[in-house]
Each structure stands twice: as structure tokens, then as C-alpha cells.
Amino acid sequence: MMVPMSQAIDTKVTEYQGIERGTRNYKRAVFAMLAAGLAAFNGLYCTQALLPTMTAELGITPTQSALTVSATTGMLAVCIVPASILSEKFGRGRVLITSLSLAIIVGLILPLVPNITALILLRGLQGVLLAGTPAVAMTWLSEEIHPKDIGHAMGIYIAGNTVGGLTGRMIPAGLLEVTHWQNALLGSSVAALIFGAIMVMLLPKQRKFQPKNINVRHEFSAMTAHWRNPRLALLFLTAFLGMGTFVSLYNYLGFRMMDQFGLSEVLVGAVFIMYLAGTWSSTQAGALREKIGNGPTVIFLSLTMIASMAMMGINNLWITLVALFVFTAAFFALHSSASGWIGIIATHDRAEASSMYLFCYYVGSSVVGWGSGFVFTHLPWIAFIGWLVLLLCGVLGISITLAKLAHKVN
Prior knowledge:
This protein is mainly alpha-helical. The chain is 82% helix and 0% strand. The chain has helices spanning 5-15, 24-44, 51-58, 62-90, 92-109, 116-130, 132-144, 150-175, 181-202, 216-228, 230-259, 265-270, 275-292, 294-311, 317-345, 350-378, 381-409. The longest helix has 30 residues, at 230-259. It is globular, with a radius of gyration of 21 Å. InterPro entries: MFS, MFS_dom, MFS_trans_sf. The chain crosses the membrane at residues 29-51, 63-83, 95-114, 153-172, 184-203, 232-255, 261-280, 292-311, 317-344, 356-375, 381-403.
């Protein structure tokens, strides 16, 4: 008896559910995504540790210098959805490699720009090109990794993001001790080039990707449908407020460290070692979710972020550093939990769901991160911290609602 062709195809698809943990391809995949995160986030925040120096040397305000970060994250946010749509036709791997390669080339040009206006414009272009990396990385993992191992793989990818963010700040900050800020930017871009080359060499070929004909109406419909799902919409808002608060703190904390506590530029750069807390917590978040559930996890992490942020209002360097460590760990665990939850809730059109989450994530980084500069510039530090605590209370309210909705679904 002959098996119908459609049934044979279904059987084949069922047999292969994705790359499983413990295999050679799994190691290649997670290390490739780790390198992608290192390269992308090295470039994304390479000017953040240089903000106090650029403000002083270029004679600009902290809010203006912060535009070298916000321009990149803002343009990335605008282009992340188009990049995701292109990946539906041309493949996640092709978009990932092209995006990262072009962004690295722009990064190598940054040290040559003559003034702050040109730097902001070029950083905006870098954001456009970088958009393809976060737009498709999580989707690539959701499609190619076996469902039971997605949480672990996603945690490693987020860990790569945190280490990339760390090196993107530490490398230029350290180089400031021996050279000027343009060469510091060059050092960061060279590091991104090395990480990008590793990603290209290791990334396995896709087996589960099925190209689609690009249909703008369908893509728009898929995204609006995700917004009509209350749990997804709340996760999108969590990304906006959470990332906006996180970047706001790190954008302006360096000024506080130098002006109030008298730290040097290299010591201010060393503060970004706190990112290692996020590297560890993002890989451990999955175990916490398995133990207490998604809803209780996001509530606990939101409360931890509020408490640690409030502690940073205390005028003591060591308390500030401890609080920053705890806050950073909680934020990246929250991000890992929320992004992993997206892949579970969105059972179809996952690329669109991931891109919408990341769109909100980077819009929050750009808009809130830049807007918080006005609070920092015109109000005392304690008021600035109060503003960030207020934003985090919004995250907590959303987390409580998410937990209630998850309980009803279950």
C-alpha cells in the first residue's frame, strides 16, 4: 500500500524536530549565536562608556552625547521588522550574516568621522544594518533548535548579548587610558570583526526554514494579531519599559560615578563588568521558570529590579555597585524569561512575534534612554532614580497581569 505524498512529508517533518542538545550541531549553533551576540552588542553600545569623555572633549551635553547610543538603537528598532520580513524570503542565516558583516564595516569607519553630527548619523546607519541580527537570531533558534532545548539555547544567546555589551563598553573604556576616543572605538570594532568571523564559520545550515513570498498585508496582519493576544502585548510592553529603564541607568551612571564618587574613566568603564551578572542570570533563568513558573518568575524579577534601583539612590559607592550588580542580573533574567515566553505563546508567525518584541525592546532603549537624559540633566540624582523606579512599577504591574493570564490559560 502506497503512502500518500502529503503523509510522507508530514512524517518526515515530525521525525526531525530540531537540533538537540549534546550534538555537534547544537554546539556549533549555540556558539555561533553566542558570537553573533558578542559582535552585535559590541557594536551597538560601543559609545556608551565614552559618553563622559565625548561630552567633555566635544563640548556637548550628556543628552546630546547619548544620541550616539539612541540613534543606533532607534534605527535598529525601526528596521527590525523589515529585516524580519526579508528573512521570511531569503532565510534567517543569510540575513544574519549580511546584516552583521555590513554593520561591522560601518563600525570600522566610525573613528574617521570629523564631528558629533557625522558620528550620530553614522551610528544611525550602523543601527539600520545591525537590525538583521537581533531580528532573526531568536527566530533562527526557535525554528532550528529542538523545542525542549530552546530555553537553554536562548539563555546562551542572551548571555552572548550581555558579554557583547560588556566588551563593547570595556574595550573602549580601557583604551581611553592610552589613546583618544576615536582609537578606542576602533578597538571595539576590531573585536566585533573577530566575533563576526567566528559566527560565519560556525553557523549551521538551516533545515526547517521554508521561504515565503513577501506579502506586506500578511506581515502586518500577523503583527497586529500578536498585539491582540493579551499575553504577547504585555510582553512587548515589558520589553519597552524594562530595556528603557536599563539603558537609562547605564547611559547616565558614568556621569554620577565621575562627578559624585571621583572615579576615573577606566574605572567607570570597569563598572560595566556588572554585565557578567546578566551573563550568569540569563542562563539560569530557565531553571527558575521551571521551578516556580513563568508568571511568578517575572514578578520576582520585577520586584528585585525595583528594590535594587531604589538602593542606588543612596549616596554610597559600594551600595551603588552592589545594587547595580543585582539590578543587572535581574534585568537580563527578565529579558531571557520574556523572550523565551514569546516563543512558547506564539505558535505561528514566530518571526513576526520576535521582531515585534525586539522592536519594543529597542524603541524603549532609544526613546526612554534619550528622554531620561532630560530628567538627569535638570533634576537631582534621587529624582532620576525615582523616575526609573516609577517605570519599573509599570513593569511590575504588567508582570502581575501576565501571571494572572497565564494561570487562567493553564
